[in-house]
Amino acid sequence: MLLLQPSRAFVPLSTTSISRQCPRLLPRLFSTCPALQARSNQATLPNSSIKLFRDVPALRQWRRKQLLDYRSVGLVPTMGALHAGHLSLIRAAAAENSAVVVSVYVNPTQFGVHEDLDSYPKTWDKDVALLRDLDRELAADGGNLGKIAAVFAPTTEVMYPSGRPGQEVDAKGSFVTITPVGEVLEGASRPTFFRGVATVCMKLFNIVTPERVYFGQKDVQQTAVIKKMVKDFCLDIKVIVGETQREPDGLAMSSRNVYLGTRRRRIATTLLKALQAAEAAYLRGSRSRDEILGPAQELARSVLAEQLQLKPEERVKFEVDYISLADPENMMEVQEVDESKGAVLSGAIKMLPVESPQADEDIGAAGGPAVRLIDNIILKPVTV
Ligand SMILES: Nc1ncnc2c1ncn2[C@@H]1O[C@H](COP(=O)(O)OP(=O)(O)OP(=O)(O)O)[C@@H](O)[C@H]1O
Ligand SMILES: CC(C)(CO)[C@@H](O)C(=O)[O-]
Ligand code: BAL
């Protein structure tokens, strides 16, 4: 592990330093070594130096070179449709790693049979432009250790070499399951979700072998599942969690927000407001589940009651899936907050498709399907 630690003081022998010190050696190395030749032909994102890998062998060669050059690698796994939440994770990764790898892969096995795999937003050209602009910003900012070195955008054949397993609960295949943390809350509503996430992340970690991986707080249970997987499978990886990035009105950024449309977008902050009501109770000194969650449930009930007073062409209906008060490590429900640990307040609501859509109404992408929104707030431990 010591060898992997980047050091600003120690400059290892890199291709750059070889070319500076022995200008005639590098061309000879390239012409005789197939691995280096392959690397020199590596595709990049247009108008940038960001390498684009679609397969494993070339990425592994590149990764080996980083290791030999004592360069640390940070991985930011994504499903594309990038927004400021993803970019904040990439910034965090560039601050503390010599090279950042961003993976872009819509992983079928984490989608339930009736979920939105087919309509999941795909915005490759916009993603490429965002990554290129961010890379320039990172390069110009002297405070970073690294910048975006590579995008890994594999095909499903690459990620599932024995064939893609089905999306059904009883599908057969090589899976990683992390229980019980992956069975509750999101796992209860989406029974194959964390199996798919843990499986694809294990693959990405094995392919990229990063020193650090970056995940967003917005998907808090996902971070608990990944931390448990890293611990229980003895992976030599540090899991770093980046703060939830929000729209100006507080809505957590999410690729799926495009499904909302104007009417539902207006009341999409209901979940956050409910969680904030619960947080306020905790900050006032409440520690019991009922005292903390009561105000959240009341807020959601009153917003729904207001909506139901409106005409069908104006109103929005939603269903609260859960509002939870849980242990931060294992996501099990708690009756009382242990002040030394704090707790996680989290929730999910399902915004139902709008009724009586108007002729000129923006009902959201993909015909405005039902949208499940999730959010959470960390109740910090009390320090004395
Ligand atoms: N608002 C956000 N702030 C910080 N990180 C985020 C935010 N939204 C997503 N992330 C993180 O980005 C990573 C990739 O997430 P993903 O590509 O699924 O985007 P998403 O916006 O969460 O999409 P979805 O709508 O599918 O939930 C995850 O670690 C996720 O937690
Ligand atoms: C971690 C992840 C990229 C795995 O597909 C996905 O669950 C996500 O984007 O949060
Ligand atoms: N950000 C989590 C990915 C998903 O909901 O499928």
TrEMBL record:
<comment type="similarity">
    <text>Belongs to the pantothenate synthetase family.</text>
</comment>
<dbReference type="Pfam" id="PF02569">
    <property type="entry name" value="Pantoate_ligase"/>
</dbReference>
<dbReference type="GO" id="GO:0015940">
    <property type="term" value="P:pantothenate biosynthetic process"/>
</dbReference>
<keyword id="KW-0436">Ligase</keyword>
<dbReference type="GO" id="GO:0004592">
    <property type="term" value="F:pantoate-beta-alanine ligase activity"/>
</dbReference>
<keyword id="KW-0067">ATP-binding</keyword>
<dbReference type="GO" id="GO:0005524">
    <property type="term" value="F:ATP binding"/>
</dbReference>
<dbReference type="InterPro" id="IPR014729">
    <property type="entry name" value="Rossmann-like_a/b/a_fold"/>
</dbReference>
<dbReference type="InterPro" id="IPR003721">
    <property type="entry name" value="Pantoate_ligase"/>
</dbReference>
<protein>
    <recommendedName>
        <fullName>Pantoate--beta-alanine ligase</fullName>
        <ecNumber>6.3.2.1</ecNumber>
    </recommendedName>
</protein>
<keyword id="KW-0547">Nucleotide-binding</keyword>
<keyword id="KW-0566">Pantothenate biosynthesis</keyword>
<dbReference type="InterPro" id="IPR042176">
    <property type="entry name" value="Pantoate_ligase_C"/>
</dbReference>
<comment type="pathway">
    <text>Cofactor biosynthesis; (R)-pantothenate biosynthesis; (R)-pantothenate from (R)-pantoate and beta-alanine: step 1/1.</text>
</comment>
